[in-house]
Amino acid sequence: MFTMSHSLYSRRRFIKNSSAAAAMVGLTGIACANQSSGPDHRLGVALLGLGGYATGQLGPALLHTKYCRLAGIITGSPDKVPEWQEKYGLSDKSVYSYDDMDRIADDDDIDIVYVVTPNALHLPYAERAAAAGKHVICEKPMEISSERCRQMMAACERAGVKLQIGYRLQYDPYHHEMIRLAQEEVHGKLKQIHSAFSFFGVHGSNWRFTDRSLAGGGPMMDLGVYPLQATRYINQAEPLSVTAQQINSYPDRMDGMEETIMWQMRFPNDVLTHSIASYAARDNYLTVNAEKGRYGLTTAYTYGPLAGYVNGDDLFAYDHRQQTAQMDAFALNILKDTPVKADGQEGLRDVICIEAIYEAARTGREVKIDMG
Ligand code: NAD
User: Fold this and answer.
1) pLDDT digits (tens, 9 = 90+) for 258-288
2) 140 is known as an active-site residue
3) Average pLDDT of 78-97?
4) Domains of the chain (ranges, CATH numbers)
5) C-alpha closest to that of 74 among 32, 126, 2
6) How far apart are CA 45 and CA 331, in angstroms?
7) What are 194's strand-pairing partners?
8) Of 15-19, 198-202, 283-287, where does mean pLDDT reach its minimum?
9) How far is the CA of 214 from the centre of ligand 1 (A)?
């Protein structure tokens, strides 16, 4: 389960400056090469799947990381290669196709493979990366079933490599602040959480909206992971049971998948949560209700800057790149051999919850959640 760093809050000046990512992951003891001088000791990351997220967010974030750098690409689209080579200075030897990616076993420049493909391809590529002896970052959702998540964890364990799930918000100061306010009961005991993450995408042609075999489900598998994660980490506890409802208001779209889903969870200590994920409307918020106060995020789940409040006041200002912090944290976990915060267990627990949410929506019953 997500654990928060209390020292972060007592030293808030750190997250107001541009060293926020480094401050969040703890810098001591690791020799870190500067980009402009000396040998580069940063760990090498190969991005696998050069789609929207890799191109728009992860590649650019790797230009700012201190403990890792882009060292390779693995792609099925040769037409994308020249642009990536030019932008990131990658030589031909650092470019792999899906067919020949197993050769990275012999590439000492690559330490980490970051899997950024459609959801149902996370397992096979993570297994190949682990078998090649590379540490793995896997995008969310971890996979499309809890069984496949367990297979991924087993593959990484067998190969002796670390696994991180791409939960960028577990490395975000505003989300840390929500946890602190709840767990320290700054405004009294936590009672309820309301949250939604939705956009209008139902007419889209991407695999998310058209191919259940790749997506594993509709917005629950994609956007819904964020409110689900937030309710779990703000509670610092696992949900006991769930009820859920779903609707498809565009009958010829989202074949075999939900268009909108709403779920309610019971947590220990009588905390109730209510969340929505939809491809038919726009929303992006988190509201936390405590006995004596209300705090939350009015821009909760996008790449930032996020926006938030505590009662009537705005949250502190900060300058922070979520993906940079996430990847640097993983690189430090490898360099120092420390536990990964957003690990495979975290990814698995979300998928166990998603399976329970789908069952509750399908049966109309309250479903108990068994983390196993
Ligand atoms: P995308 O469709 O833009 O990119 C997917 C990539 O996978 C493409 O490069 C595509 O060529 C490749 N691919 C390989 N095999 C494929 C196949 N059989 N069919 C289709 N594409 C194939 O998707 P995306 O938005 O980049 O999402 C990729 C993953 O990243 C998903 O798991 C998604 O949930 C996750 N994601 C995470 C975040 C985040 O904030 N953490 C944001 C966006 C996406």
Assistant:
1) 999 999 999 999 999 999 999 999 999 999 9
2) yes
3) 98
4) 34-167 (3.40.50.720), 169-320+341-368 (3.30.360.10)
5) 126
6) 9
7) 274, 287
8) 15-19
9) 10
